[in-house]
C-alpha cells in the first residue's frame, strides 16, 4: 500500500527559494507514480518576515500549486487577518488553492479560522480552501463554537487534522489536566463539515517518528478523536 497523492508544504522564507525549486524538480521526477501538490508555505509569516509577501508570490510564479499562510504566527492579530486577505488575493490572481496552517496553538483566543471561512464564503472559494490543524478549536468555549460551526458549514471549507503531530505538540504548556489539543473532528463530522486526517511532519524537528504510513495516522485519530463510539 502506498500514497499516490501527496500534498507537501515547502518553506518559502528562503530568499533563494532553494527548497521550492528542488521540490518542483522532484514533482516532475515522481509524476509517473505520484501526484505531488506543492504548497508555498511562508513559515515565518507573510507580513512579519522581510519580503514575505514577495517571496510567496514568486513561489506561485515558479509553479507552486497552493497558497499557504500561518496567521497565528504573525506578530499581531491584525497582521494575521491581513495576511489571510493577501493569501486569498494571491489565490484568485494565480488561480490556486488555499491551505492555511490555522490556529495551530493552544491559545483559545486564536480564531483565524473564522476569517478563513468568512473570506471563502464571500469569494465563493470554499471547496478550494483547507484549514489545517485548527488545534485551538479544542479550547474554544461552547457558545463561540456553536456560532462558528454555522459559518464553517456555510463556507464549505475543508479541514485537515493531524493526529500524530497534534497529540505530540499540543498541550505542552499545560500542567494537569492536559488537553489533547486536536480539533473537533467528531463534532465537525456530525455537523456535515468535511474533515480529513493528514500525517503532517514525517521526519523533522517537529516530529521525528513519522513513517508516512497513513494507517498509523488513522489508528491514532480514531483513538484521540474518540470516533469509535
Automatic annotation (TrEMBL):
<dbReference type="InterPro" id="IPR052349">
    <property type="entry name" value="Metallo-hydrolase_Enzymes"/>
</dbReference>
<keyword id="KW-0479">Metal-binding</keyword>
<dbReference type="GO" id="GO:0004131">
    <property type="term" value="F:cytosine deaminase activity"/>
</dbReference>
<dbReference type="GO" id="GO:0006209">
    <property type="term" value="P:cytosine catabolic process"/>
</dbReference>
<keyword id="KW-0378">Hydrolase</keyword>
<dbReference type="GO" id="GO:0046872">
    <property type="term" value="F:metal ion binding"/>
</dbReference>
<feature type="domain" description="Amidohydrolase 3">
    <location>
        <begin position="23"/>
        <end position="226"/>
    </location>
</feature>
<protein>
    <submittedName>
        <fullName>Cytosine deaminase</fullName>
        <ecNumber>3.5.4.1</ecNumber>
    </submittedName>
</protein>
<dbReference type="Pfam" id="PF07969">
    <property type="entry name" value="Amidohydro_3"/>
</dbReference>
<dbReference type="GO" id="GO:0035888">
    <property type="term" value="F:isoguanine deaminase activity"/>
</dbReference>
<dbReference type="InterPro" id="IPR032466">
    <property type="entry name" value="Metal_Hydrolase"/>
</dbReference>
<dbReference type="InterPro" id="IPR013108">
    <property type="entry name" value="Amidohydro_3"/>
</dbReference>
Amino acid at each position: 500500500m502506498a500514497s499516490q497523492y501527496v500534498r507537501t508544504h515547502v518553506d518559502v522564507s528562503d530568499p533563494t527559494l532553494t527548497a521550492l525549486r528542488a521540490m518542483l524538480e522532484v514533482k516532475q521526477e515522481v509524476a509517473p507514480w505520484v501526484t505531488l501538490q506543492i504548497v508555498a508555505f511562508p513559515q515565518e509569516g507573510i507580513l512579519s518576515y522581510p519580503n514575505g509577501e514577495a517571496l510567496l508570490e514568486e513561489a506561485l510564479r515558479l509553479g507552486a500549486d497552493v497558497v499557504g499562510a500561518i496567521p497565528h504566527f504573525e506578530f499581531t492579530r491584525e497582521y494575521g487577518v491581513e495576511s489571510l486577505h493577501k493569501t486569498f488575493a494571491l489565490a484568485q490572481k494565480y488561480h490556486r488553492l488555499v491551505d492555511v496552517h490555522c490556529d495551530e496553538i493552544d491559545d483559545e483566543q486564536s480564531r483565524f479560522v473564522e476569517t478563513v471561512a468568512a473570506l471563502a464564503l464571500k469569494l465563493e472559494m470554499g471547496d478550494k480552501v483547507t484549514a489545517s490543524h485548527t488545534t485551538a478549536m479544542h479550547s474554544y468555549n461552547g457558545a463561540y463554537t456553536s456560532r462558528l460551526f454555522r459559518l464553517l458549514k456555510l463556507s464549505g471549507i475543508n479541514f485537515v487534522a493531524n493526529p500524530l503531530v497534534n497529540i505530540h505538540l499540543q498541550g505542552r504548556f499545560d500542567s494537569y489536566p492536559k488537553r489533547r489539543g486536536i480539533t473537533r473532528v467528531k463534532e465537525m463530522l456530525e455537523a456535515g463539515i468535511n474533515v480529513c486526517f493528514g500525517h503532517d511532519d514525517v521526519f523533522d524537528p517537529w516530529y521525528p517518528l513519522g513513517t508516512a504510513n497513513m494507517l498509523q495516522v488513522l489508528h491514532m485519530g480514531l483513538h484521540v478523536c474518540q470516533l469509535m463510539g
